[in-house]
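Reminder: ligand-aware prediction takes two inputs, not one.
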Amino acid sequence: MRHNASNLAVAPAPRETEQALPFYQPAAHEIALFEHAWRNQLPLLIKGPTGCGKTRFVSYMAQRLGRPLYTVACHDDLSAADLIGRHLIGDGATYWSDGPLTRAVREGGICYLDEVVEARKDTTVVLHPLSDDRRILPIERTGETLQAPPEFMLVVSYNPGYQNFLKSMKPSTRQRFVSLRFDFPAPAAEQEIVMAETGIDGPAAKRLVSLAQALRALREHDLEEVASTRLLVYAAKLIQGGFDPLEACRAALVEPLTDDEETAAALMEVVQTLF
Ligand code: ADP
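Here is what comes back for the chain with adenosine-5'-diphosphate:
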């Protein structure tokens, strides 16, 4: 995260929800930025690689702000009706069933659309009147138009790394959002995360983070993705469970990144220098 929003005061997390808050290790001023965006009714776009903490951040913020969270993993079959709702048949009659976006609007919740660029263009169009100052959600099928309450917030994310040009977000959509760039945590923070998530000891967590750094630095292999914090947490969980560290790293950090045997062997060589 390279946002430098200095002097932003963050309200302390409300006491009563403190216990329920998921663990989140901040990188910079993203908590303050999210909170300001929410208070000012601005939609937020979070871009960053897979497994770097975007989803965790959004669920942390939703709980911190005491708002219900509706998360939708977007895919190329996702229709507007999947977000807004549809008529269903039950007991011989049809009834209307709200989709997650509509529910979030009605309840003043947070709607988080993960990997929004995967969704079809006609789906993202329904976001337009919600993400500008009209803040409305027209529901064509019922003739209703919902006015979003001040507590409602739209949050979308995408991974700019592996999106091809055509799939990246339309500028007209992107320009409606305040944007945050996420990246993998700095080594000390990533070590804290791996320890907090798995209970693994400091030296082992440190070694895993060094391994991730080494794997991320490899440029000569044509990897679509790099070792994420999520995969580091997986490796640490396997090691904590008593699994051999080399095998744990193979299963959690090498095989998920490549199908190519030669590349896997090369990655395992890096693992062996550290374990
Ligand atoms: P993304 O949504 O970016 O794909 P996630 O938010 O699901 O990634 O993060 C994957 C995992 O990595 C989380 O489940 C958590 O264990 C860990 N993680 C990553 N970043 C953080 C962070 N800043 N604080 C706490 N946990 C984190």
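Residues 23-25, 48, 50-56, 185, 193, 197, 229-230, 233 surround adenosine-5'-diphosphate (CB under 6 Å). The longest helix spans residues 202-217. We will return to this case in the review session.
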